[in-house]
Amino acid sequence: MKIENTKAQMRKGVLEYCILSVLRDNDAYVAEILDTLKDAKLLVVEGTIYPLLTRLKNAGLLHYRWEESTGGPPRKYYGLTSTGKEFLKELTYTWEELQTAVTIVTTQKNKNHE
Amino acid sequence: MNKTVNINLAGIFFHIDETAYAKLQHYLEAIRRSLTNTQGQDEIIADIEARIAELFNEKIKMERQVIGTKEVEEVIAVMGQPEDYMLDEEIFEDEPGYTRPVASGKRLFRDTEHSYIGGVSSGLGHYLGIGAIWVRLLWILLTILSSGAFILIYIALWIFVPEAKTTADKLSMRGEAVNITNIERKIREGFDDVSGKVRSVDYQKYGTQAKSGASSAAKGIGSVILLLLNIFVKLIGILILLIAGTTLIGLFIGLFTVGTFGLFDAPWADYIELAAIGAPLWVLSLLTFFAIGIPFFFLFILGLKILVKNLKSIGTPAKLVLLGLWLLSVIGLSVLGIQQATARAFDGEVVLTEPLPVTPQDTLYLSMQSNPQYSSEVYRGDVKITYDENDNKIMYSNNVRLVVKSTKDSVGRMEIVKLAEGSDSRDARNRAENIDYNASYDNGKLFLDSFLTSDIKNNFRDQEVRITLFLPEGSTLYADRNISSFHRGSDYYGNILKYNSYENYLQITNNGYICEDCETEDSEDWETDEWENDDWDNDSREEEEDTTNFLEVREDSVKIEIDRDGIRVNDANSKQVRINRNGISIQKS
């Protein structure tokens, strides 16, 4: 059991939720999603996101369209499907529950130690 | 100073340093491996390549700048290590799976960028580490030698070998060559690995690491065994491929030569036409082609799959279609077979009896007679299609059987039995009636046709003519040599002739004959020795020696000549004795 793996697992667990959240209001292409996530320090390296995006897309939560870019290769713009929106609502609810639960558990634990 | 390579990354053109190229290649390959079990692997790789292209694009300040190791390392730092690409399912394992040994990084793809037709040759060239031009020359050579059938294998490879689409594909296409040197190196590496591990065990014999060292040693041996096993499996794959491939090529050539009917004059083509199988010849050959070819085709794919790991599947629908086609062909052939069997289920015969004016004092000369228009040979066992004098297509067969029997009647007779098979008794009888067969008797000489003919529309249904000669006891038979193949094997029918009963005057007795002009048994045997050398057993060989003694010329003035025409004895006083087919003559000058 390596600490890096545990950390990565924790981060990856919420990553899907965060990606969906980034796309809640407007479509974005990969670099934009990456920028947001990196600014929030949720993501250290970019590699993780590609399998996740493909998986979300294959699950029908995301759709994409191609857009030409100046100078670079064409870009994939991702957006939420209606299923994706439903999914995001569920996740938001679950996240809030989880947050409360974790707060309760961790503070209680601290109390015991005191 | 470094050479540069031109690469196409997600449709964007880059100059890249050779060492940087190798690094990037290694990186993409590692990512591909860490994604082996992930869905949509190709799409993810394409996305990653696009992103790398984008990052390179940002880093390049001017158009002619070359991407170096520094840029690649920066990009890798941004993108993350291969294990970062793994999804959460895989990360639960402490040891990332990407460290597993890969026997060869090289895979077979079609190189469509350097293709003449489908990129098969250049892909194979990369795979085998030889120039595409040699592969192409080999294709051309094999195609000419196999009269075009090798094109099929080319097409098969075109269909089943995937095209190198992404950069990673192209990299693994050009990767390490799978040749003997490399295999040898792999094995040596494996051994070095093992010995290294063993040594480390020695050093840390009492250390806590001993256990893990031993297990790595076991792993090292395991990987060597695995490699040897791999080579063995590949050899089996090559064997299967060769067997299936040659069978398919053979079938294909067969299909075309039979299908076009006339390219080659196959000897059994006549027979198939005559047998009237109920389907045209091309249908029959196509059914056979499918019934035999499809299983071998699957075998071929199996062999190919063993050899080439990333082979495309032909797809379930194609498999089902082939399976269906095979079943239909097998059913079709069975139906035709049953039809053919029922068409021959019944026997029919027609019997004609004609008197032979042969009395016990007469001599009958017997000979078979062929029709030079149909065949120059007078032997049994030939069926073919030919044309009669009016240019009608007819069936010609040598299936004529001769039986000679003795009779107590004072006059001989001849019985001609015409036999055929058919789907019912009437059909068989009709067919038997439609057999044309002639025999002519003239002044002590009987000429029997050595063949039978029938109209082509009667089809081949084992038509046969059986002639039985009833000769009165006491009469004499003199048979030509050419009858011998027609009465052979007729003992079952009560034939009294022996295999060598020709060119002798034979007096018919009750169920047998006495040879009148075979001076002794010995001389008869001696004469046949000319023809039947192979059949001699030891006893007759001794007799042969006796004969030589017997025939010893005791007077210098006497000359004896023996040949196939008969025996001639001359002496100095011009006396001559001749024994031949015309009888015995004694001359005195």
Q: Which percent range fits the helix content of chain A?
A: 55-70%
Structural class of chain B: alpha+beta
User: What is the terminal-to-terminal distance of chain B?
Assistant: 117 Å
| Structural class based on helices, strands and sheet pairing of chain A | alpha+beta
Number of discrete helical segments of chain A: 4
Overall average pLDDT of chain A: 83
Structure description:
The complex is a heterodimer of chains A (114) and B (589). Chain A is an alpha+beta fold and 114 residues long. Helices cover 63% and strands 12% of the residues of chain A. Chain A has helices at residues 3-22, 30-39, 49-58, 82-113, and strands spanning 28-29, 62-67, 75-80. A three-stranded antiparallel beta sheet of chain A has the order 1-3-2. In chain A, strand 2 (62-67) and strand 3 form a beta hairpin. The two termini of chain A are 28 Å apart. In chain B, helix 1 (18-34) crosses helix 8 (167-174), helix 5 (120-128) packs across helix 6 (132-145) and helix 10 (210-260) packs antiparallel against helix 12 (281-307). Chain B has a six-stranded mixed beta sheet with strand order 9-10-4-13-14-15, with no helix packed on it. With 589 residues, chain B is α+β, with helices and mostly antiparallel strands. In chain B, a hairpin with a 5-residue loop joins strand 5 and strand 6. Chain B starts with a strand and ends with a strand.
Kindly list the characteristics that best describe this protein:
heterodimer, A: 114 residues, alpha+beta, 3-stranded antiparallel beta sheet, 3 strands, B: 589 residues, 6-stranded mixed beta sheet, 4-stranded mixed beta sheet, 17 helices, elongated
Describe the structure concisely for a colleague.
The complex is a heterodimer of chains A (114) and B (589). Helix content of chain A is 63%, strand content 12%.
